[in-house]
């Protein structure tokens, strides 16, 4: 089977000498076409570091990344959209102006702006500057920016941070819509209930290791599974 994205022994170290620490430890990750893949883990487990390697923001210390079955290259970034941490917005520009800047930088047809704005529900924001948007609107504009190149893979790192319940529900619906239209989505979170409502497959990262990867079985208590795997890893680490 060819995965949209696959990692083999993906590892990342930070620091040097006695301060050197392994943030991501030999992760083998498999994301199928059209899946919503929920990447779960406690804060500091290595989720963001893993996603930053998938998007070229960090270089792996060891291991490899395959995109559509071939070794990942920077050219593949045109087929990968991502929202990592805060949306990269110009607060004094409108939604459309923010998209125009990105489209120009990427050499994209301006028509992609209208499609992205329609997808995230920001067509009617007019002359309102992005700096005056609500947190939910800023998140949606960030996603619109990541959708400009019509990516095959969309990566969202903790996208519900700071959102109110309405914003979370809107984002959940947007993720489902994108997947239904054929976009593969990786969404990371430490909020189990959010992942359980959107994901087809889940991976659990604990202490830098991918300790569980499987299709999401709704008959299984996700919180119990998550806690069991995290405690198992902690016990193994304590026994060393």
UniProtKB/TrEMBL annotation:
<keyword id="KW-0378">Hydrolase</keyword>
<protein>
    <submittedName>
        <fullName>Mutacin ABC transporter, ATP-binding protein MutF</fullName>
        <ecNumber>3.6.3.25</ecNumber>
    </submittedName>
</protein>
<dbReference type="GO" id="GO:0005524">
    <property type="term" value="F:ATP binding"/>
</dbReference>
<dbReference type="InterPro" id="IPR027417">
    <property type="entry name" value="P-loop_NTPase"/>
</dbReference>
<comment type="similarity">
    <text>Belongs to the ABC transporter superfamily.</text>
</comment>
<dbReference type="InterPro" id="IPR022501">
    <property type="entry name" value="ABC_Gallidermin_ATP-bd"/>
</dbReference>
<dbReference type="InterPro" id="IPR003439">
    <property type="entry name" value="ABC_transporter-like_ATP-bd"/>
</dbReference>
<dbReference type="GO" id="GO:0016887">
    <property type="term" value="F:ATP hydrolysis activity"/>
</dbReference>
<dbReference type="InterPro" id="IPR003593">
    <property type="entry name" value="AAA+_ATPase"/>
</dbReference>
<dbReference type="Pfam" id="PF00005">
    <property type="entry name" value="ABC_tran"/>
</dbReference>
<feature type="domain" description="ABC transporter">
    <location>
        <begin position="5"/>
        <end position="232"/>
    </location>
</feature>
<keyword id="KW-0813">Transport</keyword>
<keyword id="KW-0067">ATP-binding</keyword>
<keyword id="KW-0547">Nucleotide-binding</keyword>
